[in-house]
């Protein structure tokens, strides 16, 4: 009898413990909610077809004012309570959220707020504004959109020293075309052509310094600019021309 009582008490304790674990995990499960995604081409068709939906830019107000996708309204995570009044009263209305590319979490965070407010028809445009801009899609640009930024440049000697001594802390990215990369590049570099840079930036870890280069600086400047918009904290720019002029070697690869 005592043995049975101990067994029942043990089961009860286990159930209580399991209940506590499940309760604690509920916020985590909610945070991991996955939303359906939409491609650049589909979003363009939706905008062109005048499909009834609301496009929400989840970036900061400053980023939105600099440039945004046409028809988009700006709702931020922190300002959701005040800005939610701009959303339709119909909770079944289609909402599409975007922010600064595939590694930006702002769109999902605001989408979760909308879901918590009762909206059930939600899509995420994961490529975000950088991906939209990269494909030459129409945007609404503010006065500061074309303002030139200052890049942090590395000399050939500084780059060689950095790659030799702290290679694991940095990722070198050649933003030229594939055939140019194959003809000769800096050893250890990966190739992400400038015209697809934002769309493929998901392979770049934010915890590492990112060094972009091209032949003379034009394309790597554009890549650098995109990285700043994508929220990368440590970015450098250099050129292959200077690397070669300093007498450092390049390696070839096959297409």
Write up this protein.
- With 255 residues, the chain is of the alpha/beta class.
- It has two domains: 106 residues, 3-Layer(aba) Sandwich (Oxidized Rhodanese, domain 1), CATH 3.40.250.10; 90 residues, Rhodanese-like domain (Oxidized Rhodanese, domain 1), CATH 3.40.250.10.
- The protein contains ten helices and eleven strands.
- The strands form three sheets. Strands 1-6-5-2-4 form a five-stranded parallel beta sheet, covered by helices on one side. A four-stranded parallel beta sheet has the order 9-8-10-11, sandwiched between helices. The chain has a two-stranded antiparallel sheet with strand order 3-7.
- The chain starts with a helix and ends in a 10-residue tail after the last helix.
- The relative contact order is 0.12.
- The N terminus is likely disordered.
Count of discrete structural domains: 2
CATH level-four homologous superfamily name of the largest domain: Rhodanese-like domain
Relative strand content: 15-25%
CATH fold call of the largest domain: Oxidized Rhodanese, domain 1
- The secondary structure category is alpha/beta
Order of helices and strands: HEHEHEEHEHEHEHEHEEHEH
Spans of at least 5 consecutive residues with low confidence: 1-32
Gross CATH architecture of the largest domain: 3-Layer(aba) Sandwich
Summarize this structure as a short list of keywords or feature phrases.
Oxidized Rhodanese, domain 1, 255 residues, 10 helices, single chain, 11 strands, alpha/beta, 40% helix, 2 domains
């Amino acid at each position: 009898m005592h043995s049975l009582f101990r067994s029942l008490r043990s089961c009860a304790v286990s159930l209580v413990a399991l209940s506590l674990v499940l309760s604690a995990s509920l916020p985590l499960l909610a945070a991991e909610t996955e939303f359906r995604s939409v491609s650049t081409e589909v979003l363009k068709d939706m905008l062109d077809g005048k499909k009834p939906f609301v496009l929400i830019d989840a970036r900061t107000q400053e980023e939105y004012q600099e440039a945004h996708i046409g028809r988009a309204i700006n709702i931020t995570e922190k300002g959701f309570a005040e800005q939610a009044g701009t959303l339709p009263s119909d909770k079944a209305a289609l909402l599409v959220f975007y922010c600064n590319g595939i590694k930006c979490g702002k769109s999902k965070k605001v989408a979760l707020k909308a879901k918590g407010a009762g909206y059930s028809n939600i899509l995420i445009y994961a490529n975000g504004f950088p991906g939209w801009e990269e494909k030459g899609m129409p945007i609404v640009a503010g006065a500061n959109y074309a303002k030139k930024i200052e890049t942090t440049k590395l000399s050939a000697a500084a780059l060689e020293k950095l790659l030799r001594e702290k290679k694991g802390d940095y990722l070198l990215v050649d933003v030229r075309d594939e055939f140019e990369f194959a003809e000769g590049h800096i050893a250890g570099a990966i190739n992400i052509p400038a015209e697809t840079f934002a769309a493929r930036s998901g392979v770049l870890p934010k915890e590492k310094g990112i060094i972009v280069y091209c032949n003379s600086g034009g394309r790597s400047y554009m890549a650098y600019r995109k990285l700043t918009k994508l929220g990368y904290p440590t970015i450098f720019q250099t050129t292959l021309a200077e690397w070669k002029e300093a007498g450092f070697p390049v390696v070839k690869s096959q297409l």
